[in-house]
Amino acid sequence: MGDNKMKKQIQLSHGGGGKEMNKLIKDLFFKAFDNPILKSEEDAAHLELKGPTAFTTDSFTVAPLFFAGGDIGKLAIAGTVNDLAMMAARPEYLSCSFIIEEGFELDKLKTIVNSMASEMEKSGAKIVCGDTKVVPKGCADGIFINTSGVGEILQTGISIKNIQEGDAIIVSRDIGRHGAAILMAREGLTLESDLTSDCATLWPIVEALLNANIPLHAMRDATRGGISAVLNEWAVGSNVEIAIDDAQLPVADEVKGLCELYGFEPLDLANEGTFVIALPQEYANKAVEIINQQGAYSSNESANNMEEASNSGIIKEQAAIIGTVGIERAGKVILKTPWGSSRYLDLPQGELLPRIC
Questions:
Q1: Helix/strand/coil (H, E, C) string of the chain?
Q2: What's the pTM?
Q3: What local confidence, expressed as pLDDT, does residue 306 receive?
């Protein structure tokens, strides 16, 4: 029984460069991430790049590794692909490095790797190089993943410094969902309706906006720090005032409930499939229409279930115009409340939820 158990776990030899490591790479990684560049087994991938290119990297340490709506593998692919997409860059090539703790269950690793392969299909990106390290038990929390990515920029000029007076601010779907889902998983909370993370690849939506010739001034996926962090970075980066209408912010009832229970603000909670756009006011309604047609909100619910989802607190029309850009109080974000008052929306302070990605 001891041998059978060991065969189902990662051992130090899986990172030692010998037969065990070779078998793991060939039988699992090459099979899941199959493409000619990766299988050439060179020390570095030989790539053909053209034109302006975006390059990004990210490391993922989320706890728990598996959560409602995703896992660390899906997160690692979507997170890096989304960083490229926010620069209007078509995701092309990814690298992937695993740091795995000795004793990690092989079946869990297979699930994570297959999740990564499935998520890459949504953008067409390919893992073309990688690395595997196994560390002794107790030196890591199960598994950590680093992914880097490069992609061809299809529209230049998208920048936190390019937001202009009169621009509209759009959020692509309801906010705070990933942070709330991670909190729910950690605390073992059970809700009447299923709350899932918004973890998703955003490139198909961005590509649709680009194909429609929507002039995008800035885009940012609202991960750590949530919407609050994005808007404050934009206000300072472009030296503008951003005024947000609290009544227009799409927030699912489950997220509202968790925030009230724990004293959090939905605007501060992390998202992993939600992005913010600044663009000329005259294109705002068209952009909202395109986003909703792409179904940014339907990664976890089919179109036939949208009425049911709406009744359970998931807002049916997810994308929303939430604010405008001015210059009166440059560098500040103003939140207009439903009661007619307003307040400054500051950067989140402290670490609300560590290791959410």
A1: CHHHHHHCECCHHHHCCCHHHHHHHHHHHHHHCCCHHHHCCCCCCCCCCCCCEEEEEEEECCCCCEECCEEHHHHHHHHHHHHHHCCCEEEEEEEEEEEEECCCEHHHHHHHHHHHHHHHCCCCCEEEEEEEEEECCCCCCCEEEEEEEEEEECCCCCCCCCCCCCEEEEECCCCCHHHHHHHHHHHCCCCCCCCCCCCCCCHHHHHHHHHCCCCCCEEEECCCCHHHHHHHHHHHHHCCEEEEEHHHCCCCHHHHHHHHHHCCCHHHCCCCCCEEEEEEHHHHHHHHHHHHHHCCCCCCCCHHHHHHHHHCCCCCCCCEEEEEEECCCCCCEEEECCCCCEEECCCCCCCCCCCCC
A2: 0.92
A3: 42
